[in-house]
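Q: What would this complex look like in 3D?
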Amino acid sequence: MIEARGLTKHYGDTTAVSDLSFDVRPGQVTGFLGPNGSGKSTTMRLIMGLDRPDAGLVTLNGRVYHDLPWPLREVGALLEAKAIHPGRSAFDHLWALAQTNDIPRSRVSQVLDQVGLASVARRRAGKFSLGMGQRLGIAGALLGDPEILLFDEPINGLDPEGIRWVRHLLRGLAAEGRTVFVSSHLMSEMALTADRLVVIGRGRLIAEMPVAEFIACNSRQFVRVRTSKPAEVTALCDALAGAGAQVADDDGAMCVTGLCAAEIGELAASVGATLHELSPQMASLEDAFMELTRDSVEFGVHDAPDDDVRPSDIELAPVKR
Amino acid sequence: MSVVTAGAPALPPGSYSLAGALRSEWTKLRSVRSTTWSLVATAVLTIAIGILATTTEAGRWAHANTGDRLAFDPTSLSLAGFLFGQLAIGVLGVLVVSAEYSTGTIRATFGAVPHRITVLAAKVAVFSGVAFVIGEVLAFSSFFIGQALLSGSAPTAALSQPGVLRAVIGGGLFLTVLGLFALGLGTIVRHSAGAITAFVGIFFVVPLIVEALPSSIKDAVGKYLPDNIGATMTTVKQGFRTDVPTFSPWVSFALLCAYAAVTLIIGGILLARRDA
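A: Here is my prediction, written as structure tokens for the whole assembly.
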């Protein structure tokens, strides 16, 4: 259980995290989602007591990190890949960590085997790829067999096989009753891995809810309808509006919300419109995430003169008749 | 809310301690090549310069004037390499802390041992032990090699003579405490290049500046300089090795310890306060 209350952290004039409160519960994977630069890594460092918050408090199973009697046996963390001396072997890196918390040498070999680095354990880590560095970082987090696990962007640099492996690992750890907190800027990955989400943007909490609820709240289902003749478009629009549906324009097609495909088909038949397309659609979670955090992206790319208007906005705007 | 701990085993009694941190720091120090290279460099510089100095002086003795013969200090001469070996041990002292910052391992280290002063204490203890053993081995090696090279062509010293054993042991102590001063600098500065530059500046550049000052100032300031402290500690015939007034060997050593303590205390305070 991780409880953050009112966490605030400034670096000079920059506010990295602002009045952030959330809970991370045991037995679940909690995804920590936010665009790059939104304060995820800062929050991770505040949890671990590496940086001191300007205000607020974060506890791990009721204690601040500094007061944990056996930190590695209680909290395991992957904060950054390849945070290892390039001249030191993976084994010695982990062994040095293990010794601080009286963790037996056999456990070092065990976690290296678990993350698939047993064959390169004695090699200097400077030669490791980013993916191998991530695996070593994960081994370091697992070292003390802790109840709470923190992973900051664990899939960065991993190949698809590695990403699947991390996903299974995280779900397995949560299934064992552990508290798993994993940050990512990839909504799609979190949709597959996490049970709950803590979403932040510009250091502020945007949402904290189960993934299913987040999807239900933030993804829109609609039906794309296409007809050829302008007269039919007008007639169908009127009929749809009369039935209580909302219609938006999407590059020549109609995006209809509020009615299912079957109802739209019957309405089209009743006004004599010939349909070229009638397809149920689901706005992607990525879109929902973009929408939610749009105002909080620190280094946003402005790609058009009218950069405030995005396709998702157009979908929602009723067509003028 | 009850805490589910199904996946994690029960914690052992007690808590992490300095003992574990010491073992960890020893593992870190012995598991990187930069340690070996720094120590090899220290040894080569110290021994080689000692050999060079003694062979040169052995050849000169026959033609030396009375003043030079009076000032001749075979112990100090054989330990001449220590003033160069200090550079390499200083680099190692800096790296013990700064390498953790440059590689990012400092966060894993503090994650494992949140009490940061414990980490610093463990680093100080392990480094001191290594530097002291290496320093004394080098001091006695330099001494015996030097006397062997001088014998036959110039007077030699023996450990039984007054002040000789003190000067030889002083060589190893000087190297150890100097390394600790550098470790403190590394803790304050955190960047390898910056800390090494500061170290070189204090030990090689400041003496040059002081040398250029009027002799009244030079005499007042000179005895506080680390290189003069080192010279005093490794000299039997006081007053001949340096051209400025100096403190006695043990007062000089106490002063050096105070310098190291100041950098370590400032470093420790910053370590505890700063974000990692």
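A: To summarize the key features: Chain B has twelve helices and no strands. Chain B touches chain A through 39 residues (CB under 8 Å).
Q: Very helpful, thank you.
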